[in-house]
Write a structure and sequence with these properties.
Blueprint: E1 3-8, H1 13-25, E2 29-36, H2 40-52, E3 58-63, H3 69-83, E4 88-91, H4 106-129, E5 136-140, H5 153-173, E6 179-185, H6 191-196, H7 208-219, E7 230-233
Parallel strand pairs: 1-2, 1-4, 2-3, 4-5, 5-6, 6-7
Helix pairs in contact: 1-7, 3-4, 4-5
The structure holds NADP nicotinamide-adenine-dinucleotide phosphate (NAP).
């Protein structure tokens, strides 16, 4: 049976590589919805994916700031109308602004929570409330959510919440046949990682396609045998 996947934060990094794996390697994911804010990077990535997609794949895009609740709901409504049921959801969009505790602003903490925690919750809730039946939800947390890191208070706290929220989703949605997987990557060479560790040589750490391959495995026939509340992927 063909499936539809929605990936947030699909303009670059882990999200874009996940979409690429779905398009080129999945036999049954035929419709892919990509969420990110409007940017030339996003447009170029979509253009490149459309040009290289195998026949029969449909790519649907929406410019959406997942931290803006009205915009998020409007876009979910229009996407649900266009593609119908979302079978696979990858809550991947993430934001961080690492600063020492004394400099952390509450507005920025709220933004971090809006993007990293409330958006995944709102997407799942809105779709459930509109009759959606998920087969698989993958929430991208972080190893920083398992152990708090100096200078990363807002990010670490938000990712800890993602790990815990995923456990609740997993328990509550099991009766609908929905698998919920929380995935915590370690350091991965992306723009977000550069913000967290500007001095690091990106060639020495995990690449986004490595994480994307693990996500793809969850969607494959063997994926159902991976039963963990928090799958850690790190070097
Ligand atoms: N890289 C690592 O070392 C690492 C480790 C652990 C966990 N993670 C997690 O992995 C996920 C993906 O991050 P990445 O490392 O691939 O970073 P990235 O390359 O910087 O990508 C982040 C993605 O999130 C999107 N995003 C950020 N704010 C958004 C907003 N308000 N609305 C919509 N989209 C938004 C960005 O899209 P636009 O800016 O184009 O809208 C972009 O597509 C995040 O949840 C991150 O916390 C990363």
């Amino acid at each position: 049976m063909t499936k539809t996947a929605l990936v947030t934060g699909a303009s670059r990094g882990i999200g874009l590589e996940t979409v690429r794996r779905f398009i080129h390697n999945s036999e049954d994911i035929t419709t892919i919805v990509m969420f990110a804010r409007k940017s030339s990077d996003f447009d170029e990535a979509v253009e490149e994916l459309r040009a290289s997609s195998p026949v029969g794949r449909k790519i649907v895009t929406r410019y959406v700031d997942v931290g803006d609740r009205d915009s998020l709901h409007e876009n979910l409504e229009s996407v649900h109308e266009e593609v119908g049921n979302i079978d696979i959801l990858v809550n991947n969009a993430g934001y961080t602004n690492p600063v020492p505790l004394q400099q952390a602003e509450i507005d920025d903490f709220e933004k971090t929570m809006n993007v990293n925690v409330y958006a995944p919750f709102l997407i799942v809730k809105w779709l459930l409330n509109h009759g959606n039946v998920f087969k698989l939800i993958v929430n991208i947390a972080s190893t920083a959510g398992m152990n708090g890191r100096s200078g990363w208070l807002t990010y670490s706290a938000s990712k800890a919440a993602v790990i815990n929220m995923s456990q609740v989703m997993r328990e509550e949605l099991a009766i609908y046949g929905t698998r919920v997987v929380c995935l915590s990557p370690g350091r991965t060479a992306t723009a977000l990682r550069r913000t967290l560790a500007p001095e690091e040589d990106p060639s020495t750490i995990m690449q986004p396609e490595h994480v994307a391959r693990v996500i793809e495995t969850f969607t494959s026939p063997v994926g159902r045998f991976i039963d963990s509340e928090n799958v850690v992927v790190r070097q």
